[in-house]
Design a protein that fits this description.
- It is a single chain.
- The protein has 141 residues and is α+β, with helices and mostly antiparallel strands.
- It starts with 26 loop residues before the first helix and ends with a strand.
């Protein structure tokens, strides 16, 4: 399986038929976050509980470089597979709200410019399984 943004190489190095960005974009984070939250909610619908997962990979990818996405049990249990290589670190957090409801956040972190400042993308799941719009902190980092 190819990661979003990874193209097929051709003899002249221009890429092939799949989408291939000239420079990294945040499309991977946005698409994968929605897929991650969908997988988290589907797991809860089936098993009655939320799982935490990540952060994976352990280090936030720097400079927009593709890094290996290790196969980790929690992500496999919920059915999330972003591909072999990613430009973002993914995580699912679960906390209890003041009224006792679970607060679930799906997160993606990346550092395209390699300066150590991470862009953070977040989607929240409410107790009814509805997702929030994607929230972004330090977009473009």
């Amino acid at each position: 399986m190819r990661a979003l943004g990874e193209g097929l190489a051709t003899g002249d190095g221009r890429g092939g038929g799949l989408f291939r960005a000239e420079k990294p974009t945040d499309t991977e984070a946005r698409v994968n976050l929605l897929a991650l939250c969908d997988a988290v909610q589907s797991y809860r619908d089936e098993h009655g509980t939320y799982l935490t997962a990540g952060p994976t990979p352990k280090e936030v990818p720097r400079g927009g470089e593709l890094v290996e996405f290790p196969k980790e049990e929690p992500f496999q249990h919920i059915g999330f597979d972003p591909g072999e290589k990613v430009r973002f670190q993914y995580e699912v957090t679960v906390q209890e709200s003041p009224v006792g409801e679970p607060e679930v956040s799906c997160l993606a972190r990346g550092d395209f410019d390699g300066d150590g400042q991470n862009a953070v993308y977040r989607v929240r799941l409410d107790s009814n399984g509805m997702t929030s719009p994607i929230e972004v902190e330090r977009e473009g980092e």
